[in-house]
Task: inverse folding
């Protein structure tokens, strides 16, 4: 049995197959809406169901609360239709020329940026080019480990090689990369995926917020913005537990020195006697201290789901950030 899904305000519609979630059906039909993790953790695909019966599927209370469900909100990456439905969401025209592909690649380099962070470069076939937007991600596919989503840390103008940053949380894919994967090995990937990319139709100042390897897609976006000479004010707040978590601190410092990007590193788990002279605490709270009013900003947040959701909630509720000006991608590790 199929059900008709109608999108407002565009009035476009598509048929949803049995047991297919709203997001998958829309993407199958070439209709682009916001999404990130596709497993109910990040909240990027949260939007409103105006009418019809649905099944919410698996999700976290912190990502979709009972109160939000009562207001008609749903996570489209998990929600299935039980009848014809009408939904309300913003469609993203910038993705209309981006084609999701399944491609082979060769591991070019494997370099540890920190004891638990691996820098991976993948070389594409010489005859191939991957069109993507800075900030998007790919799914790595290998017979030796489960599929894993990783953000592209290199900008689109850097052709031929894709740069990835992987943190070792102890999951099967991390163990495969850190203990088994070798340079010159062949992998496959599907992509590009996701809707975390810079919106270039505004001149609002940009506030980037990263935790851990959430720095990877933000690095791609900043390098794209510098390459394109986008003249918008940019600030980067990068949070970690200890200094090693800010594994490319020197690069961010260079951006600050040579390109005027305001860089604020924030550490949350240092002992009191550590000589660190920078900011301490939660990274999104450091933003709120420096920017109590965010009404005129766009925020791009990437990292741990708890950081992304806390920033979304507090920036909107306490700093007057418009909800439509918050863009995010939450990283869900492959192990608890």
Result:
């Amino acid at each position: 049995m199929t059900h008709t899904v109608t999108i407002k305000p565009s009035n476009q519609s598509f048929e949803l197959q049995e047991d297919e979630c709203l997001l998958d059906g829309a993407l199958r039909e070439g209709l682009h809406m916001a999404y990130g993790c596709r497993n109910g953790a990040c909240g990027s695909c949260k939007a409103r169901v105006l009418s019809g019966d649905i099944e919410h599927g698996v999700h976290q209370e912190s990502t979709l609360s009972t109160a939000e469900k009562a207001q008609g909100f749903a996570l489209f990456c998990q929600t299935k239709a039980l009848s014809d439905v009408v939904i309300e969401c913003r469609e993203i025209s910038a993705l209309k020329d981006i084609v999701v592909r399944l491609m082979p690649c060769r591991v070019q380099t494997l370099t540890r940026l920190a004891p638990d962070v691996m820098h991976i470069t993948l070389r594409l076939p010489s005859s191939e080019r991957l069109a993507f937007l800075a900030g998007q991600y790919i799914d790595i596919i290998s017979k030796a480990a489960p599929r894993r989503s990783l953000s592209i840390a290199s900008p689109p103008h850097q052709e031929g090689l894709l740069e990835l940053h992987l943190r070792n949380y102890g999951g099967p894919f991390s163990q495969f990369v850190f203990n088994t994967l070798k340079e010159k090995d062949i992998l496959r990937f599907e992509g590009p995926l996701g809707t975390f990319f810079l919106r270039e139709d505004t001149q609002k100042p940009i506030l980037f917020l990263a935790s851990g390897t959430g720095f990877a897609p933000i690095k791609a976006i900043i390098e794209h913005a510098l390459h394109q000479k986008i003249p918008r004010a940019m600030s980067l707040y990068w949070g970690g537990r200890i200094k090693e978590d800010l594994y490319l601190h020197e690069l961010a410092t260079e951006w600050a020195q040579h390109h005027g990007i305001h860089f604020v590193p924030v550490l949350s788990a240092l002992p009191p006697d550590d000589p660190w002279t920078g900011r301490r605490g939660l990274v999104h709270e450091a933003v709120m201290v420096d920017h109590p009013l965010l009404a005129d900003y766009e925020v791009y947040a990437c990292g741990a789901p708890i950081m992304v959701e806390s920033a979304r909630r507090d920036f909107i509720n306490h700093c007057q950030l418009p909800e439509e000006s918050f863009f995010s991608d939450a990283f869900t590790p492959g192990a608890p």
Summary: The chain has a mean pLDDT of 92. The longest strand covers residues 101-114. The chain has three domains: 3-91, 101-193, 206-330. The radius of gyration is 20 Å.
